Amino acid sequence: MKFTILRLAAASLWNRRLTVTLTAIAIGLSVALILGVEKMRRDARSAFSSTVSGTDLIVGARSGALQLMLYSVFRIGNATNNVSWASYQRYADDRRVRWSVPLSLGDSHRGFRVLGTSAEYFEHYRYGQRFPLRFAEGGPFSATREAVLGSAVAKELGYTLGADLVFAHGAGDVVLETHDEYPMRAVGILAPTGTPVDRTVHVSLESITLIHIDMEVPDEQSSKNRFQRLIKRAVADRDLTPKSITAFMLGTRSKLDIFRLQRDINRDRNEPLLAALPGVALQELWDLLGVAETVLRLVAAMVVLTGLLGMTTLILSTLEMRRREMAVLRAVGARPLHITGLFVFESALLGIAGVVFGLVMLYAATLLAQPLAATTLGLHLPVEAPRQGDLVILAAIVAAAAAAGLIPAWRAYRSALADGLTIKI
Amino acid sequence: MSAEPASGGDEPLLSARDVRFRWPGAEQDLLSIDTFSLAYGERLFLHGSSGSGKSSLLALLGGVARPREGEIRLLGKPLQALRQKQADRLRADHIGFVFQLFNLVPYLGALQNVMLPCSFSTRRREQLQAEGVSVEAEARRLLERLELADEPLLQRAVTDLSIGQQQRVAVARALIGAPELLIADEPTSALDEGTRERFLELLFGECDVRGTAVLLVSHDVRVGALFDRRLALSDLNMARTA
Predict the structure, then answer these.
(1) A364: alpha, beta or left, given left = phi > 0 and alpha = psi -120 to 50?
(2) Chain A residues inside the 8 Å CB shell of B65
(3) Which residues of A touch B93 (CB under 8 A)?
(4) A vs B: CB pairs below 8 A
(5) Per-residue model confidence as pLDDT tens digits over B79-118
(6) Mapping DSSP to helix (H, G, I), strand (E, B) and coil, where does residue A263 land?
């Protein structure tokens, strides 16, 4: 009997498939939106969280912890101040410090950031579940003018080992100055990590110093300039130790030392420094994004509500035309409860169709957005089965659709009772 | 020419006594019937113009409305004493309805329309089971008897069928599973002269097979010629209706 009503509901929907499909798509869009918002939130969090693991402290010039994290690890924005080499040396040699990796940013290659660092970077940097970096090809740089490419850099620019790269000053799209006297040679390509590392060109600190020597020379007449450059270069060949770096990462010998060390760095008398715990800085980010996320979720919920209202309107609008059908069903033995069930089933089926459409749209959108999210945000958007939280949302939408069906169902029930077997017009 | 009454002894198939009825909110009674009865297998023509309380009477006999006073019995069961659910079941099991127009569920095919009552009525289903025929086979047989055997016709949307064809599908649906009573409300009014005769012939022919009683309500007196008994609703109904 229940099955009869379900079959009737399906046949009735099929009979009106055009309007029904459009309505289901409207619900589907809202489903895709609400799941998409959840997915972005989750993927962004996991991407940020997995970008740096195993690093105890990140140290930069005094600013905000979040800002420091953003520019040093995620390559978003720029540092306002640098850290002197002397300070770095002092903490690198601290007995509590097990390893340290300097970071020097500020140049770019065809839109990809250039990171000056030491070879230890490849040894100590960890991402995700403490995965180390792996080389797909070649190995770390061992001399100046050698570069290690992130996987996306190599892939998108079509570079293989031995390729020459010319760096530009600054990270913007408009390149004002290029360091074309010193092309870098690709000696290694990293395996993909799904983090900003993929979109980074790694060189030694010395290489960074080298390409910036020219810029310290006052820009005069070209011949004189060239002569001075040669002198500078001769000098530079002997000592390319940087005067300053952007930031550095630290690993401690014992977790117990982290807070003491952080306090010491923050109270450094020689230079205003900031040591940030990556986890705490990320928490700051989540707090910041929390409001935006709530707003997005609210908007998505409103869109779902709009979709369901549209569905209810559709069903209500056909109610008058269907009074005859209801009377016929009553005459062949349908009880008022069956009539109610018919509308609830129709709404629930529409809800289910909407959910299916929504999932299809979400996956299609994810596939389409994948390359864009990777290039512009460095965000990896995996196509994956709905999580438990998603399933709860989907079930709630179907339940809400069925509940919305109660409105026309109630009216149909009332008119079925009042009409009897013949409709009074 | 009528078949033997199916069962029942002295008790008629359908009877009404001292029935008073008005729709909720109405000022005065719409129906006031002192006595009315229909025997098993009987063919009764009820003549009534619109506004004579026809719809109300059908609602009462079908058990979808309750009299204010009095008693209506179907197969010995007092309809007014039944719960709505029981009344619905009694109707589904024992009465087939045919209306003037739009008898069919628009999104089901002709065959599905005919089979539909068996989804709601266990008794009709069991009746066919006892006879050893499937619901679909019986539906096809009935459609064939009513000259609708043509397969492409059955595949078409019921809304594309002619009125005459739709009315015959409705008769097949009313009769599937052998209910004791067929109630037809102006079933021929939308048909033209030629098809009207043929329609009634087919309807009676199939009702005779099982001894199904027929209660036909119409404003058209000519239709009444083929019936055992003729009654005017205005004679039956004592209520002064406007």
Answers:
(1) alpha
(2) 420
(3) 333
(4) 74
(5) 888 888 888 888 888 988 888 777 788 888 888 888 888 8
(6) helix
